[in-house]
């Protein structure tokens, strides 16, 4: 039976997807004009809009073809219109589409790309899509634009595959719908209507930093394929669901896509991967989301039933948005959770062992607990932020296509960036490489024809909207470029300032730029304190093999106490710079709030940010103002209720530090007697270090540091000044040098040097805070009786 015999050849019906039906049939079925119907003509199926016809014979326009297997359930209820075709009403309610992505097929890539790059042709194709009703399983025929390139060729129509719709299901393209016409790849091959609903991604060389997790996912799919009879032989149910959890951008979606691609390329099985965003299938119509889930599972079971080597994988991204806790969610979400539970429980027969469901979320505790029991999501794989080695592997993957200078090795750049980019996940690293290329292009914006390799790299980043302007650059750029047309390490350093780690956005930290760098050489004296901090922070990072060989564990917390101004904060900052660790600060102003629960939430958030960006240092300055000391004389209490809750939260978070390697808590105070004893036990603040006032030799060294850029007169004796300043702290000595400079400036605006008399007068203006009594208090705390 020929389909063309039933096609309406009137000009006004061509490319409109209309189906002309007898008016009597329309009245009998109570159908209105424009409702979506499925037209069955032989073995093929089409999506059309029904229109009543009084005089002309029944006919339809085959503009939109749909995969026949996806509408098999409707064929039995189809109404025969003529000997050529039958129709069935689409049971699901269609909604206006927000976004539709169409991919060209069965046409030369250079020809279709030239058409899509032409602005007028692209607009004409987008306008031709208006008012069409499509599905993700459809192939759409659009008319050849009447204006643009390749007009001399006899191309009647262009063929596009619906790659994605938002929301999922049957949607109507309206005026506000964003129609994305994707460029064709060079390896664009003919694609039939019976191909999978959503194509697998392009081949990926490897997934950097996730080799262990990738092996686990592939093993689960292999197990379902190679041991299909294990359920009947041993009475064991194979895993049906896998929950992937981890921070945003860590690579959960890429992991599943790469695993399915690798298995299909191996030739061992035929994979069908369906990716659904959790929020896409939620609609206003009652029961539409549940019907969409049932249709997806029906398609998966039908696919695996075709051959024993077929495997269907359903990937539910943002599962927490689709299946939240039922006791706190809306009724629509509760129905979706109940439907998904029913579908997962129905995957018990032998053929359904080759139907796997993957879920991904960055909020695993927000998912309904009924989904996480065995028999539904049996396996949970937690993806942690990449460490240095994993970041190096990710950089090597992305640097393969980045043009680097010939004298710089890719491995050296990857090692350097992996060490500096603490807290970066895979998506951050990809964005960093793109941003570095953009900066390199901007450096050469006066001669863009000399940077084709950089533009070629950016053009491949088609899914990043912020680089669309560069990806649309003409491909006919001259292949000749000078030696400066490369992405340099300076471009990566500048890109790091523009692309911070996503886990640290909003966290209170400081930028490690060259102007704010603090080194150990900037701190005079305190050699014992420096050594203690280096042993606690730097040595575990620099010599991990030695620590493991000697079964040593780095301390979890360090408390620095001493008189005010003794460089406690500066020492911690220098330690963070020297170790390349993430440095997070927490003060009383950040914690306390007039609202109940905000203080505890602030502490938990700081620890959460630090665990996501290890190695990290959390510095609590003036910790005595953050937590209060409980007095046993008052029944074990002391301070306000908020202060006690803050202390309890801090104690609990510090006890949890053991699960996060590379996290160090450093506190600083000048009132150690106000610190609660529970904080000072081993396991919390393991080391309590006294930061004393500088000795005479230390004061001489400090004076040298603060006057190294000043022009001193010949009569200035820094050793004598150091001897005349007992009980002076480092901050007070810095203030003495500053006051002496101001005195010289007040005498003459043209002063050339600072004289000894200026220092002598400055000593009379600056008085030390500490005295013998206060030092004795610290000594008593250091050596209690």
From TrEMBL:
Q: Name one Pfam family in it.
A: AAA
Q: Which PROSITE patterns match?
A: AAA (PS00674)
Q: Where is the AAA+ ATPase domain?
A: 238-387, 554-695
Alphabetized, the UniProt keywords read: ATP-binding, Nucleotide-binding
Q: Which residues form a coiled coil?
A: none
Q: Which InterPro entries match?
A: AAA+_ATPase, AAA_ATPase_domain, AAA_lid_3, ATPase_AAA_core, ATPase_AAA_CS, P-loop_NTPase
Q: Where is the signal peptide, in residue numbers?
A: none
GO molecular function terms noted in the UniProt entry: ATP binding; ATP hydrolysis activity
CDD domains linked to this entry: RecA-like_CDC48_r2-like
Entry-linked Gene3D superfamilies: 1.10.8.60, P-loop containing nucleotide triphosphate hydrolases
Designated name of the protein: AAA family ATPase
Show the SMART domains listed in the entry. Answer: AAA
The answer to whether the entry has keyword ATP-binding is yes
The record's annotation in PANTHER family points to: AAA+ ATPASE DOMAIN-CONTAINING PROTEIN, AAA-FAMILY ATPASE
């Amino acid at each position: 039976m020929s389909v063309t015999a039933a096609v309406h050849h009137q000009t006004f019906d061509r490319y409109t997807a209309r189906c002309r039906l007898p008016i009597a049939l329309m009245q009998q079925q109570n159908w209105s004009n424009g409702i979506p119907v499925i037209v069955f003509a032989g073995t093929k199926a089409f999506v059309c809009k029904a229109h009543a016809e009084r005089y002309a014979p029944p006919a339809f326009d085959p503009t939109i073809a749909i995969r026949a297997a996806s509408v098999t359930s409707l064929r039995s209820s189809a109404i025969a219109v003529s000997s050529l075709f039958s129709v069935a009403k689409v049971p699901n309610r269609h909604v206006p589409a927000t976004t539709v992505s169409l991919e060209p097929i069965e046409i030369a890539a250079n020809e279709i790309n030239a058409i899509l790059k032409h602005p007028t042709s692209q607009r004409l194709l987008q306008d031709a899509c208006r008012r069409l009703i499509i599905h993700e399983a459809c192939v759409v025929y659009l008319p050849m634009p009447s204006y643009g390139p390749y007009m001399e060729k006899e191309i009647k129509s262009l063929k596009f595959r619906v790659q994605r719709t938002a929301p999922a299901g049957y949607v109507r393209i309206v005026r506000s719908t964003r129609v994305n016409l994707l460029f064709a790849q060079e390896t664009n091959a003919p694609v039939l209507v019976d191909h999978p609903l959503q194509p697998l991604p392009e081949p990926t060389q490897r997934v950097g930093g996730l080799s262990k997790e990738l092996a686990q996912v592939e093993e689960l799919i292999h197990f379902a394929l190679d041991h299909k009879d294990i359920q009947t032989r041993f009475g064991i149910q194979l895993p049906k669901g896998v929950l992937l959890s981890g921070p945003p951008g860590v690579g959960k979606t890429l992991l599943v896509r790469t695993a399915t691609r690798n298995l299909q390329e191996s030739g061992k099985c035929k994979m069908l991967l369906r990716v659904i965003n959790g929020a896409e299938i939620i609609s206003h119509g009652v029961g539409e989301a549940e019907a969409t889930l049932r249709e997806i599972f029906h398609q998966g079971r039908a696919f695996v039933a075709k051959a024993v080597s077929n495997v269907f994988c359903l990937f539910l991204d943002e599962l927490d948005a689709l299946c939240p806790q039922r006791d706190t969610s809306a009724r629509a979400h509760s129905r979706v959770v109940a439907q998904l539970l029913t579908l997962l429980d129905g995957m018990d027969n032998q053929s359904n062992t080759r139907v796997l469901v993957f879920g991904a979320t960055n909020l695993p505790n927000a998912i309904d607990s009924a989904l996480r029991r065995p028999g539904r999501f049996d396996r949970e794989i937690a993806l942690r932020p990449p460490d240095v080695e994993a970041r190096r592997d990710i950089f090597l993957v992305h640097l393969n296509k980045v043009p680097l200078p010939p004298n710089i090795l890719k491995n050296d750049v990857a090692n350097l960036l992996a060490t500096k980019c603490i807290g970066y996940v895979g998506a951050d690293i990809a964005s960093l490489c793109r941003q570095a290329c953009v900066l390199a292009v901007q450096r050469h914006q006066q001669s863009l024809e000399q940077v084709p390799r950089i533009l070629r790299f950016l053009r491949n980043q088609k899914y990043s909207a912020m680089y669309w302007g560069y990806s649309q650059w003409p491909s006919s750029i001259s292949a000749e470029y000078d030696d400066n047309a490369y992405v340099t390490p300076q471009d990566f350093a500048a890109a790091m300032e523009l692309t911070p780690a996503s886990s640290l956005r909003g966290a209170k930290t400081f930028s490690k730029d060259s102007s704010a760098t603090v080194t150990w050489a900037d701190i005079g004296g305190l050699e014992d304190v420096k050594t203690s901090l280096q042993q606690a922070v730097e040595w575990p990072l620099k010599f991990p093999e030695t620590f493991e060989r000697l079964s040593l564990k780095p301390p979890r917390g360090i408390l620095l106490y001493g008189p005010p101004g003794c460089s406690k904060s500066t020492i911690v900052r220098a330690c963070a710079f020297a170790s390349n660790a993430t440095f997070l600060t927490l003060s009383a102003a950040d914690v306390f709030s007039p609202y109940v629960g905000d203080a505890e939430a602030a502490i938990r958030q700081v620890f959460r940010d630090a665990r996501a960006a290890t190695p990290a240092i959390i510095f609590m300055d003036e910790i005595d103002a953050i937590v209060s000391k409980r007095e046993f004389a008052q029944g074990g209490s002391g301070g306000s209720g908020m202060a006690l809750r803050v202390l309890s939260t801090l104690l609990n978070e510090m006890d949890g530090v053991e699960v996060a390697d590379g996290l160090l808590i450093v506190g600083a105070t000048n009132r150690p007697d106000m610190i609660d004893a529970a904080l000072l036990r081993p396991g919390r603040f393991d080391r309590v270090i006294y930061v004393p006032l500088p000795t005479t030799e230390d004061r001489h060294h400090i004076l040298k540091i603060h006057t190294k850029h000043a022009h001193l007169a010949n009569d200035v004796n820094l050793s004598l000044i150091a001897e005349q300043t007992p009980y002076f702290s480092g901050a007070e000595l810095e203030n003495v040098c500053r006051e002496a400079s101001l005195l010289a400036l007040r005498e003459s605006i043209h002063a050339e040097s600072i004289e000894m008399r200026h220092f002598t007068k400055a000593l009379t203006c600056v008085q030390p805070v500490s005295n013998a009594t206060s030092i004795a208090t610290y000594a008593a705390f250091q050596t209690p009786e």
